[in-house]
Amino acid sequence: MTSAPTDLAAQLDRQDPLAGFRERFVGAGDPLVYFDGNSLGRPLRATGPRLQRFVDEEWGGRLIRGWDEGWMDLPHRIGDDLGRICLGAAAGQTVVGDSTTVLLYKMMRAAVAARPGRTEIVIDRDNFPTDRYVAAGIAEELGLTLRWIEVDTTEGVTAELLAEAVGPATALVVVSHVAYRSAWLADLPELVRITHDAGALILADLCHSAGSVPLALDAWDVDIAVGCSYKYLNGGPGAPAFVYVASRLIDELTQPIRGWIGNDDPFLMGPSYTPAPGIRRFLSGTPPILGMLAVRDMLELLEEASIDAVRDKSVALTQYAIDLTDEVLAPAGAVLASPREADRRGGHVTVNHPAMREVTARLWAQDVIPDYRDPGGLRLGLSPLSTSFGEVERGVEIVRATLDALTA
Ligand SMILES: *Cc1c(COP(=O)(O)O)cnc(C)c1O
Protein backbone atom coordinates (compact mmCIF):
# COMPACT_ATOMS: atom_id res chain seq x y z
CA MET A 1 0.00 0.00 0.00
CA THR A 2 2.76 2.46 0.78
CA SER A 3 4.25 2.34 -2.70
CA ALA A 4 7.02 4.78 -3.59
CA PRO A 5 5.78 8.08 -5.06
CA THR A 6 5.62 8.27 -8.84
CA ASP A 7 7.98 10.50 -10.75
CA LEU A 8 5.36 13.23 -10.90
CA ALA A 9 4.64 13.34 -7.15
CA ALA A 10 8.37 13.18 -6.37
CA GLN A 11 9.07 15.94 -8.86
CA LEU A 12 6.33 18.16 -7.42
CA ASP A 13 7.82 17.67 -3.96
CA ARG A 14 11.34 18.45 -5.22
CA GLN A 15 10.11 21.65 -6.88
CA ASP A 16 8.07 22.73 -3.85
CA PRO A 17 9.76 25.78 -2.30
CA LEU A 18 7.91 25.13 0.98
CA ALA A 19 8.76 21.40 1.21
CA GLY A 20 11.25 22.02 4.02
CA PHE A 21 8.53 23.29 6.37
CA ARG A 22 6.98 19.83 6.62
CA GLU A 23 9.62 18.56 9.02
CA ARG A 24 8.74 21.29 11.52
CA PHE A 25 5.50 19.41 12.33
CA VAL A 26 5.13 16.53 14.78
CA GLY A 27 4.54 13.25 12.97
CA ALA A 28 5.24 14.50 9.45
CA GLY A 29 7.83 11.73 8.96
CA ASP A 30 5.31 8.96 9.70
CA PRO A 31 3.68 6.99 6.89
CA LEU A 32 0.23 8.10 8.10
CA VAL A 33 -1.64 10.16 5.48
CA TYR A 34 -3.27 13.19 7.03
CA PHE A 35 -6.12 14.77 5.07
CA ASP A 36 -7.72 16.51 8.02
CA GLY A 37 -5.47 19.48 8.73
CA ASN A 38 -8.51 21.61 7.88
CA SER A 39 -10.30 20.17 10.93
CA LEU A 40 -7.37 19.91 13.32
CA GLY A 41 -3.93 21.01 12.20
CA ARG A 42 -0.85 19.04 13.27
CA PRO A 43 1.16 20.43 16.18
CA LEU A 44 4.48 22.10 15.48
CA ARG A 45 7.59 20.60 17.03
CA ALA A 46 8.25 23.98 18.65
CA THR A 47 4.94 23.88 20.52
CA GLY A 48 5.72 21.16 23.09
CA PRO A 49 8.83 22.93 24.43
CA ARG A 50 6.99 26.26 24.33
CA LEU A 51 4.19 24.91 26.51
CA GLN A 52 6.68 23.31 28.89
CA ARG A 53 8.59 26.60 29.22
CA PHE A 54 5.38 28.48 29.82
CA VAL A 55 4.38 26.16 32.66
CA ASP A 56 7.83 26.21 34.26
CA GLU A 57 8.81 29.83 33.82
CA GLU A 58 5.77 32.02 33.25
CA TRP A 59 2.94 30.26 35.04
CA GLY A 60 5.11 28.49 37.63
CA GLY A 61 7.60 31.32 38.09
CA ARG A 62 5.61 34.50 37.70
CA LEU A 63 2.28 33.18 39.01
CA ILE A 64 -0.44 35.85 39.23
CA ARG A 65 2.07 38.56 38.26
CA GLY A 66 1.90 37.11 34.75
CA TRP A 67 -1.34 38.97 34.09
CA ASP A 68 0.43 42.32 34.51
CA GLU A 69 3.52 41.10 32.71
CA GLY A 70 1.94 40.29 29.38
CA TRP A 71 -0.88 37.79 29.60
CA MET A 72 -3.58 40.47 29.60
CA ASP A 73 -2.23 41.83 26.31
CA LEU A 74 -1.68 38.44 24.70
CA PRO A 75 -5.14 38.20 23.05
CA HIS A 76 -4.42 41.55 21.39
CA ARG A 77 -0.81 40.80 20.48
CA ILE A 78 -1.74 37.51 18.83
CA GLY A 79 -4.75 39.19 17.23
CA ASP A 80 -2.55 41.90 15.74
CA ASP A 81 -0.01 39.34 14.48
CA LEU A 82 -2.79 37.31 12.91
CA GLY A 83 -4.19 40.46 11.34
CA ARG A 84 -0.83 41.40 9.85
CA ILE A 85 0.28 37.94 8.71
CA CYS A 86 -2.99 36.40 7.49
CA LEU A 87 -5.96 38.74 7.51
CA GLY A 88 -4.85 42.01 5.91
CA ALA A 89 -6.00 43.79 9.05
CA ALA A 90 -4.24 46.74 10.70
CA ALA A 91 -3.56 46.51 14.44
CA GLY A 92 -6.26 47.06 17.03
CA GLN A 93 -9.08 45.30 15.20
CA THR A 94 -8.49 41.61 15.98
CA VAL A 95 -8.58 39.83 19.33
CA VAL A 96 -8.45 36.18 20.45
CA GLY A 97 -10.92 34.60 22.87
CA ASP A 98 -13.98 32.33 23.28
CA SER A 99 -14.92 29.67 20.73
CA THR A 100 -16.07 30.44 17.20
CA THR A 101 -19.62 29.51 18.16
CA VAL A 102 -19.69 31.90 21.12
CA LEU A 103 -18.12 34.70 19.07
CA LEU A 104 -20.65 34.10 16.30
CA TYR A 105 -23.43 34.57 18.84
CA LYS A 106 -21.90 37.69 20.32
CA MET A 107 -21.14 39.30 16.97
CA MET A 108 -24.42 38.41 15.24
CA ARG A 109 -26.26 39.93 18.21
CA ALA A 110 -24.05 43.00 18.14
CA ALA A 111 -24.59 43.42 14.39
CA VAL A 112 -28.37 43.11 14.35
CA ALA A 113 -28.61 45.52 17.29
CA ALA A 114 -26.70 48.05 15.19
CA ARG A 115 -29.37 47.89 12.45
CA PRO A 116 -32.57 48.59 14.43
CA GLY A 117 -35.80 48.29 12.48
CA ARG A 118 -34.31 45.78 10.04
CA THR A 119 -35.77 42.33 10.52
CA GLU A 120 -33.78 39.78 8.50
CA ILE A 121 -30.57 37.79 8.76
CA VAL A 122 -29.40 36.36 5.42
CA ILE A 123 -27.49 33.05 5.55
CA ASP A 124 -27.10 30.10 3.19
CA ARG A 125 -28.63 26.69 3.73
CA ASP A 126 -25.27 24.92 3.46
CA ASN A 127 -23.35 27.11 5.86
CA PHE A 128 -21.60 25.30 8.73
CA PRO A 129 -24.14 23.96 11.27
CA THR A 130 -23.06 26.15 14.18
CA ASP A 131 -23.45 29.30 12.03
CA ARG A 132 -26.99 28.26 11.03
CA TYR A 133 -28.01 27.20 14.53
CA VAL A 134 -26.74 30.39 16.14
CA ALA A 135 -28.44 32.55 13.52
CA ALA A 136 -31.71 30.62 13.97
CA GLY A 137 -31.49 30.98 17.74
CA ILE A 138 -30.95 34.74 17.51
CA ALA A 139 -33.83 35.07 15.06
CA GLU A 140 -36.07 33.21 17.50
CA GLU A 141 -34.84 35.23 20.45
CA LEU A 142 -35.35 38.61 18.79
CA GLY A 143 -38.32 37.88 16.52
CA LEU A 144 -36.26 38.23 13.34
CA THR A 145 -36.59 36.26 10.11
CA LEU A 146 -33.90 34.11 8.53
CA ARG A 147 -33.72 34.57 4.80
CA TRP A 148 -32.15 31.41 3.46
CA ILE A 149 -30.01 31.36 0.35
CA GLU A 150 -30.34 28.01 -1.40
CA VAL A 151 -26.93 27.02 -2.75
CA ASP A 152 -25.48 24.35 -4.97
CA THR A 153 -23.61 22.22 -2.39
CA THR A 154 -20.72 21.70 -4.82
CA GLU A 155 -20.34 25.49 -4.87
CA GLY A 156 -21.52 28.14 -2.41
CA VAL A 157 -22.77 31.71 -2.08
CA THR A 158 -22.34 33.66 -5.32
CA ALA A 159 -22.76 37.40 -5.86
CA GLU A 160 -25.94 36.75 -7.88
CA LEU A 161 -27.52 34.66 -5.11
CA LEU A 162 -26.69 37.24 -2.47
CA ALA A 163 -27.98 40.14 -4.58
CA GLU A 164 -31.35 38.35 -4.83
CA ALA A 165 -31.52 37.77 -1.08
CA VAL A 166 -30.68 41.19 0.40
CA GLY A 167 -32.95 44.21 0.60
CA PRO A 168 -34.13 47.03 2.84
CA ALA A 169 -35.12 44.54 5.57
CA THR A 170 -31.64 42.96 5.78
CA ALA A 171 -29.81 43.66 9.02
CA LEU A 172 -26.97 41.18 8.61
CA VAL A 173 -25.44 38.80 6.06
CA VAL A 174 -23.55 35.77 7.46
CA VAL A 175 -21.26 33.99 5.00
CA SER A 176 -18.37 31.54 5.14
CA HIS A 177 -15.36 32.75 3.17
CA VAL A 178 -14.51 29.14 2.28
CA ALA A 179 -17.43 26.67 2.41
CA TYR A 180 -16.69 23.80 4.79
CA ARG A 181 -18.20 21.22 2.43
CA SER A 182 -17.23 22.18 -1.13
CA ALA A 183 -14.32 24.57 -0.40
CA TRP A 184 -16.13 27.22 -2.49
CA LEU A 185 -14.13 30.44 -2.08
CA ALA A 186 -16.62 33.28 -1.92
CA ASP A 187 -15.89 36.54 -3.72
CA LEU A 188 -15.83 38.35 -0.40
CA PRO A 189 -15.13 41.89 -1.66
CA GLU A 190 -18.09 41.61 -4.02
CA LEU A 191 -20.34 40.18 -1.28
CA VAL A 192 -19.33 43.09 0.96
CA ARG A 193 -20.24 45.59 -1.74
CA ILE A 194 -23.67 44.01 -2.32
CA THR A 195 -24.35 43.91 1.44
CA HIS A 196 -23.33 47.53 1.95
CA ASP A 197 -25.42 48.68 -1.02
CA ALA A 198 -28.38 47.17 0.81
CA GLY A 199 -27.44 49.08 3.98
CA ALA A 200 -26.67 45.91 5.95
CA LEU A 201 -23.64 44.57 7.81
CA ILE A 202 -21.67 41.45 6.84
CA LEU A 203 -20.06 38.85 9.10
CA ALA A 204 -17.55 36.54 7.42
CA ASP A 205 -16.68 33.18 8.95
CA LEU A 206 -12.99 32.58 8.26
CA CYS A 207 -12.61 29.13 9.87
CA HIS A 208 -11.60 27.48 6.59
CA SER A 209 -9.57 30.35 5.18
CA ALA A 210 -7.46 31.85 7.98
CA GLY A 211 -3.93 30.57 7.49
CA SER A 212 -4.69 29.12 4.06
CA VAL A 213 -6.19 31.80 1.82
CA PRO A 214 -4.83 35.37 1.99
CA LEU A 215 -7.35 37.94 3.15
CA ALA A 216 -7.51 41.72 2.86
CA LEU A 217 -10.22 42.50 5.41
CA ASP A 218 -9.39 46.21 5.63
CA ALA A 219 -9.12 46.72 1.87
CA TRP A 220 -12.31 44.72 1.21
CA ASP A 221 -14.21 46.82 3.76
CA VAL A 222 -15.39 43.73 5.69
CA ASP A 223 -17.39 44.68 8.79
CA ILE A 224 -16.96 41.70 11.11
CA ALA A 225 -15.09 38.39 10.82
CA VAL A 226 -14.80 35.39 13.12
CA GLY A 227 -12.62 32.30 12.79
CA CYS A 228 -11.07 29.44 14.68
CA SER A 229 -7.39 28.83 15.34
CA TYR A 230 -7.18 25.03 15.38
CA LYS A 231 -7.59 24.33 11.64
CA TYR A 232 -4.99 26.01 9.37
CA LEU A 233 -3.62 27.92 12.36
CA ASN A 234 -2.61 24.75 14.23
CA GLY A 235 -3.57 26.05 17.68
CA GLY A 236 -4.60 22.62 18.98
CA PRO A 237 -7.93 21.07 20.00
CA GLY A 238 -10.27 23.70 21.41
CA ALA A 239 -7.83 26.58 20.90
CA PRO A 240 -9.69 29.90 21.18
CA ALA A 241 -11.18 31.71 18.22
CA PHE A 242 -10.61 35.27 17.00
CA VAL A 243 -12.79 38.18 16.04
CA TYR A 244 -12.07 41.09 13.70
CA VAL A 245 -14.16 44.25 13.76
CA ALA A 246 -13.40 47.11 11.35
CA SER A 247 -12.13 50.10 13.34
CA ARG A 248 -14.89 52.33 11.94
CA LEU A 249 -17.47 50.06 13.67
CA ILE A 250 -15.82 49.06 16.94
CA ASP A 251 -17.31 51.74 19.17
CA GLU A 252 -20.70 51.41 17.50
CA LEU A 253 -21.14 47.73 18.39
CA THR A 254 -21.97 46.25 21.78
CA GLN A 255 -22.07 42.53 22.38
CA PRO A 256 -24.46 40.78 24.73
CA ILE A 257 -22.11 38.94 27.13
CA ARG A 258 -21.11 41.78 29.42
CA GLY A 259 -18.22 40.38 31.37
CA TRP A 260 -15.66 42.17 33.46
CA ILE A 261 -12.80 41.76 30.97
CA GLY A 262 -14.77 43.66 28.31
CA ASN A 263 -15.51 46.41 30.77
CA ASP A 264 -13.88 49.81 30.51
CA ASP A 265 -11.79 49.30 33.67
CA PRO A 266 -11.85 45.63 34.70
CA PHE A 267 -9.94 46.14 37.92
CA LEU A 268 -12.13 48.96 39.19
CA MET A 269 -14.75 46.24 39.79
CA GLY A 270 -17.37 48.97 39.54
CA PRO A 271 -21.14 48.78 39.94
CA SER A 272 -22.05 48.67 36.25
CA TYR A 273 -20.81 47.75 32.80
CA THR A 274 -19.39 50.27 30.36
CA PRO A 275 -17.89 48.62 27.26
CA ALA A 276 -14.14 49.20 26.90
CA PRO A 277 -13.11 51.46 24.06
CA GLY A 278 -11.46 49.44 21.34
CA ILE A 279 -11.54 45.78 20.39
CA ARG A 280 -11.36 44.53 24.03
CA ARG A 281 -15.09 45.24 24.40
CA PHE A 282 -15.73 42.04 22.45
CA LEU A 283 -14.08 39.90 25.15
CA SER A 284 -16.12 38.74 28.13
CA GLY A 285 -14.14 36.74 30.68
CA THR A 286 -10.56 35.75 31.54
CA PRO A 287 -8.53 35.13 28.36
CA PRO A 288 -7.63 31.43 27.76
CA ILE A 289 -3.85 31.98 27.70
CA LEU A 290 -2.67 28.35 27.59
CA GLY A 291 -4.93 27.68 24.61
CA MET A 292 -3.51 30.48 22.51
CA LEU A 293 0.22 29.73 22.85
CA ALA A 294 0.46 27.19 20.02
CA VAL A 295 -1.03 29.62 17.51
CA ARG A 296 2.01 31.86 17.96
CA ASP A 297 4.30 29.14 16.64
CA MET A 298 2.18 28.70 13.54
CA LEU A 299 1.95 32.45 12.97
CA GLU A 300 5.74 32.65 13.08
CA LEU A 301 5.92 29.86 10.52
CA LEU A 302 3.31 31.49 8.28
CA GLU A 303 5.20 34.77 8.43
CA GLU A 304 8.42 33.01 7.49
CA ALA A 305 6.75 31.21 4.57
CA SER A 306 4.41 34.13 3.64
CA ILE A 307 0.69 33.61 3.22
CA ASP A 308 0.92 34.17 -0.54
CA ALA A 309 3.41 31.31 -0.93
CA VAL A 310 1.18 29.16 1.29
CA ARG A 311 -1.75 29.91 -0.99
CA ASP A 312 0.33 29.02 -4.08
CA LYS A 313 1.13 25.65 -2.58
CA SER A 314 -2.47 25.16 -1.49
CA VAL A 315 -3.66 25.74 -5.05
CA ALA A 316 -1.03 23.31 -6.38
CA LEU A 317 -1.99 20.64 -3.82
CA THR A 318 -5.74 20.91 -4.49
CA GLN A 319 -5.10 20.92 -8.26
CA TYR A 320 -3.04 17.76 -7.89
CA ALA A 321 -5.82 16.16 -5.80
CA ILE A 322 -8.33 17.08 -8.53
CA ASP A 323 -6.10 15.62 -11.25
CA LEU A 324 -5.79 12.40 -9.25
CA THR A 325 -9.55 12.38 -8.64
CA ASP A 326 -10.10 12.55 -12.39
CA GLU A 327 -7.52 9.85 -13.15
CA VAL A 328 -7.87 7.47 -10.23
CA LEU A 329 -11.24 7.99 -8.49
CA ALA A 330 -13.60 9.02 -11.30
CA PRO A 331 -13.20 5.65 -13.08
CA ALA A 332 -14.49 4.05 -9.86
CA GLY A 333 -17.61 6.22 -9.95
CA ALA A 334 -16.52 9.08 -7.66
CA VAL A 335 -17.54 12.63 -8.54
CA LEU A 336 -15.67 15.84 -7.76
CA ALA A 337 -17.80 18.08 -5.51
CA SER A 338 -15.48 21.11 -5.31
CA PRO A 339 -14.85 23.99 -7.72
CA ARG A 340 -12.39 23.33 -10.56
CA GLU A 341 -11.44 27.01 -10.91
CA ALA A 342 -8.51 27.68 -8.58
CA ASP A 343 -9.66 31.20 -7.76
CA ARG A 344 -13.00 29.90 -6.51
CA ARG A 345 -11.47 27.09 -4.41
CA GLY A 346 -10.09 27.04 -0.86
CA GLY A 347 -7.75 24.49 0.68
CA HIS A 348 -9.64 21.20 0.44
CA VAL A 349 -11.26 18.98 -2.15
CA THR A 350 -14.47 16.98 -1.68
CA VAL A 351 -15.18 13.82 -3.66
CA ASN A 352 -18.62 12.19 -3.61
CA HIS A 353 -19.49 8.51 -3.85
CA PRO A 354 -22.34 6.64 -2.10
CA ALA A 355 -19.82 4.33 -0.37
CA MET A 356 -17.67 7.10 1.16
CA ARG A 357 -18.98 6.73 4.72
CA GLU A 358 -17.79 3.14 4.82
CA VAL A 359 -14.65 4.01 2.85
CA THR A 360 -13.75 6.65 5.44
CA ALA A 361 -14.16 4.19 8.33
CA ARG A 362 -11.85 1.73 6.58
CA LEU A 363 -9.33 4.43 5.71
CA TRP A 364 -9.07 5.53 9.33
CA ALA A 365 -8.28 1.93 10.26
CA GLN A 366 -5.39 2.06 7.76
CA ASP A 367 -3.95 5.39 8.99
CA VAL A 368 -5.34 7.39 6.11
CA ILE A 369 -7.31 10.20 7.76
CA PRO A 370 -9.75 12.19 5.64
CA ASP A 371 -13.11 13.52 6.84
CA TYR A 372 -16.57 12.35 5.90
CA ARG A 373 -19.36 14.83 5.22
CA ASP A 374 -22.82 13.48 4.62
CA PRO A 375 -24.17 12.65 2.05
CA GLY A 376 -21.34 10.69 0.48
CA GLY A 377 -18.60 13.32 0.67
CA LEU A 378 -14.97 12.40 1.30
CA ARG A 379 -13.09 15.55 2.21
CA LEU A 380 -9.38 15.78 1.46
CA GLY A 381 -8.00 18.61 3.55
CA LEU A 382 -4.55 19.68 2.38
CA SER A 383 -2.70 21.74 4.93
CA PRO A 384 -0.07 23.51 2.81
CA LEU A 385 2.92 23.55 5.17
CA SER A 386 2.53 20.00 6.46
CA THR A 387 1.23 18.05 3.42
CA SER A 388 3.42 16.70 0.62
CA PHE A 389 2.44 15.80 -2.93
CA GLY A 390 3.64 12.24 -2.29
CA GLU A 391 1.24 12.02 0.64
CA VAL A 392 -1.66 13.17 -1.57
CA GLU A 393 -0.83 10.57 -4.18
CA ARG A 394 -0.45 7.74 -1.68
CA GLY A 395 -3.70 8.70 0.04
CA VAL A 396 -5.74 8.87 -3.15
CA GLU A 397 -4.42 5.48 -4.28
CA ILE A 398 -5.51 3.94 -0.98
CA VAL A 399 -8.94 5.60 -1.35
CA ARG A 400 -9.25 3.91 -4.76
CA ALA A 401 -8.16 0.51 -3.44
CA THR A 402 -10.63 0.80 -0.57
CA LEU A 403 -13.45 1.80 -2.90
CA ASP A 404 -12.63 -1.16 -5.14
CA ALA A 405 -12.58 -3.58 -2.22
CA LEU A 406 -15.98 -2.32 -1.02
CA THR A 407 -17.77 -2.18 -4.34
CA ALA A 408 -16.27 -5.31 -5.91
C1 LIG B 1 -14.83 24.62 12.24
C2 LIG B 1 -15.90 25.63 12.06
C3 LIG B 1 -16.59 26.17 13.15
C4 LIG B 1 -16.27 25.65 14.52
O1 LIG B 1 -16.85 26.34 15.57
P1 LIG B 1 -16.32 25.99 17.05
O2 LIG B 1 -17.10 26.87 17.93
O3 LIG B 1 -14.84 26.23 17.06
O4 LIG B 1 -16.59 24.54 17.30
C5 LIG B 1 -17.51 27.17 12.90
N1 LIG B 1 -17.77 27.61 11.64
C6 LIG B 1 -17.13 27.07 10.57
C7 LIG B 1 -17.42 27.57 9.20
C8 LIG B 1 -16.20 26.06 10.75
O5 LIG B 1 -15.59 25.51 9.70
UniProtKB/TrEMBL annotation:
<keyword id="KW-0663">Pyridoxal phosphate</keyword>
<dbReference type="InterPro" id="IPR015424">
    <property type="entry name" value="PyrdxlP-dep_Trfase"/>
</dbReference>
<dbReference type="GO" id="GO:0043420">
    <property type="term" value="P:anthranilate metabolic process"/>
</dbReference>
<dbReference type="GO" id="GO:0030429">
    <property type="term" value="F:kynureninase activity"/>
</dbReference>
<comment type="function">
    <text>Catalyzes the cleavage of L-kynurenine (L-Kyn) and L-3-hydroxykynurenine (L-3OHKyn) into anthranilic acid (AA) and 3-hydroxyanthranilic acid (3-OHAA), respectively.</text>
</comment>
<dbReference type="InterPro" id="IPR010111">
    <property type="entry name" value="Kynureninase"/>
</dbReference>
<dbReference type="GO" id="GO:0097053">
    <property type="term" value="P:L-kynurenine catabolic process"/>
</dbReference>
<comment type="pathway">
    <text>Amino-acid degradation; L-kynurenine degradation; L-alanine and anthranilate from L-kynurenine: step 1/1.</text>
</comment>
<comment type="pathway">
    <text>Cofactor biosynthesis; NAD(+) biosynthesis; quinolinate from L-kynurenine: step 2/3.</text>
</comment>
<protein>
    <recommendedName>
        <fullName>Kynureninase</fullName>
        <ecNumber>3.7.1.3</ecNumber>
    </recommendedName>
</protein>
<comment type="subunit">
    <text>Homodimer.</text>
</comment>
<comment type="similarity">
    <text>Belongs to the kynureninase family.</text>
</comment>
<dbReference type="GO" id="GO:0019441">
    <property type="term" value="P:L-tryptophan catabolic process to kynurenine"/>
</dbReference>
<dbReference type="InterPro" id="IPR015421">
    <property type="entry name" value="PyrdxlP-dep_Trfase_major"/>
</dbReference>
<keyword id="KW-0378">Hydrolase</keyword>
<dbReference type="GO" id="GO:0009435">
    <property type="term" value="P:NAD+ biosynthetic process"/>
</dbReference>
<dbReference type="GO" id="GO:0030170">
    <property type="term" value="F:pyridoxal phosphate binding"/>
</dbReference>
<keyword id="KW-0662">Pyridine nucleotide biosynthesis</keyword>
<dbReference type="InterPro" id="IPR015422">
    <property type="entry name" value="PyrdxlP-dep_Trfase_small"/>
</dbReference>
<dbReference type="Pfam" id="PF22580">
    <property type="entry name" value="KYNU_C"/>
</dbReference>
<dbReference type="GO" id="GO:0005737">
    <property type="term" value="C:cytoplasm"/>
</dbReference>
